[in-house]
UniProtKB/TrEMBL annotation:
Protein name, UniProt field: Glycosyltransferase
Pfam family, one: Glycos_transf_1
Organism: Faecalibacter macacae
PANTHER family on file: GLYCOSYLTRANSFERASE, GLYCOSYLTRANSFERASE EPSF-RELATED
InterPro entries for this protein: Glyco_trans_1
Organism lineage: Bacteria, Pseudomonadati, Bacteroidota, Flavobacteriia, Flavobacteriales
Domain Glycosyl transferase family: 249-409
A GO MF term: glycosyltransferase activity
Length: 432
């Protein structure tokens, strides 16, 4: 029987939203009937449908209710949660109702057998998914593009163990003491909704797999599978590696180091440690070795502190074209990821798929996609000294050893992070 599947995400492009777009594409390639339901549609694919809320009938009672709401519940009267930005406390009220289930199913066009949920902040919460479950009896799978499915509202924990023990009234993310209870309320709501609806999780990285297994909400799940970034190797590959440098006008005898993020000033991305590591590296290399190294930064915004390093630096605007991005990975010799609080990023697996070794901190996707002395190096969080040593090791590999690292990078993706790998994971889930 061909299953009917709904994939739910706030958007369809970039980061966590792109991951759910990939889930939809993979399931479609597996010949399932799939609708990706989003709040904000930007891609043109027909399988993506925006959820359009029904406009209330403009009758007398509605007008009275709206007037009352405007007086007592106006935007100015509802106090926004004061939270530390690094925690990304985006899920403010898990008990609120945001959808009309009948309207949603009418938009989808069928009753789903399975529902896959990604990042749905400012769109749909666990209580909405519970209502969907009651109406459809579908099996719910939450895909952990970050930690939000098992916290009281945070997408990143920064060491907080609330997701393990249950959030309480001492939430470190919420600044205002009078609002700290919200984390506990949200967590308890998520916990109860998961229990009533038999929510399950699928990990999207090695780190979120470990976190899911520790989490109070999902620790009793029999088996938690991991889809590991889901890389389309038809796009991200080594097919043009021999000519990629020429495409960008790069010199053949130079060693190009690639790093990037949408915002290099985001403390989660840890770029201050990259700067420290490169400053250490500069002292360890001879002058002729330093002259061969060029740092390429892909971002919309670049930290001014990069001006303090000795290596030549090129800034490239954030690339949306995946074919061009694939060429950039192929044209570079090393990708560095210095995230210190991260569930991904996808760029790590994309670089590996293009035969580019990776160095970075032991978190996110590096946890299980990087093996030391095989396809790169992972070092303890915030250790700029060891990061510098790891970068130097890659730079000083002889040609044969470097080529082995490159081949091993591709192999790691093919076996653990490709669309083909993800299809096997979904087969196991959908045919069980």
């Amino acid at each position: 029987m061909k299953h009917k599947i709904v994939v739910i995400s706030t958007g369809d492009i970039n980061g966590a939203y792109e991951a759910m777009y990939k889930v939809s594409k993979i399931l479609l390639e597996m010949d399932y009937e799939v609708v990706m339901l989003v709040k904000d549609k930007t891609k043109s694919d027909n399988f993506i449908k925006p959820y359009l809320r029904k406009k209330p009938k403009n009758n007398f009672i509605t007008k009275v209710v709206n007037k009352i709401n405007n007086v007592f519940f106006s935007e100015s009267s509802v106090k926004k949660i004061e939270a530390k930005s690094e925690y990304s406390f985006l899920d403010e009220d898990e008990s609120s109702s945001n959808i009309d289930v009948n309207n949603l199913l009418k938009i989808v066009g069928f009753i789903p057998d399975f529902i896959f949920v990604g990042m749905t902040s400012n769109f749909i919460n666990s209580s909405d998914i519970y209502k969907l479950y009651k109406k459809t009896n579908a099996q719910i799978y939450n895909i952990t593009v970050d930690m939000s499915f098992f916290t009281g509202g945070c997408h990143y924990s920064w060491g907080c163990q609330g997701y393990v023990n249950g959030c309480d009234d001492n939430c470190p993310a919420i600044i205002n003491q009078s609002q700290k209870y919200i984390a506990k309320k949200n967590f308890d709501t998520k916990y109860n909704n998961a229990l009533k609806s038999n929510f399950k999780v699928i990990a999207a990285s090695g780190l979120t797999l470990e976190q899911s297994k520790e989490s109070k909400i999902y620790k009793n799940q029999n088996e938690i599978l991991n889809v590991n970034s889901m890389i389309d190797t038809r796009v991200m590959n080594t097919f043009n590696k021999a000519t990629a440098k020429e495409y960008f006008g790069f010199e053949e005898d130079k060693f190009y180091i690639l790093s990037g993020a949408q915002n290099l000033n985001d403390p989660r991305k840890g770029f201050k440690y990259l700067i420290e590591a490169l400053q250490i590296l500069s002292k360890n290399l001879r002058e002729y070795e330093k002259e061969k190294i060029i740092l390429i930064l892909v971002s919309r915004e670049v930290n001014d502190n990069f001006n303090s390093i000795d290596f030549k630096t090129l800034k490239i605007d954030y690339i949306k074209d995946y074919n061009k991005l694939s060429l950039l990975y192929q044209a570079t010799n090393l990708f560095i990821n210095t995230s210190i609080e991260e569930s991904g990023p996808m760029m790590v697996s994309e670089a590996l798929a293009c035969g580019t070794p990776v160095v970075g901190f032991d978190t996110g996707i590096l946890v299980n996609m990087i093996r030391n002395d095989f396809n790169g190096y992972k070092v303890p969080l915030k250790d700029s000294v060891l990061l510098a040593k790891a970068i130097e090791k890659i730079i000083k590999l002889n040609k044969e050893d470097y080529n082995n690292f490159s081949k091993n990078s591709v192999l790691m993706v093919e076996e653990n992070s490709s669309f083909e790998y993800a299809k096997e994971v979904f087969k196991k889930i959908l045919n069980s």
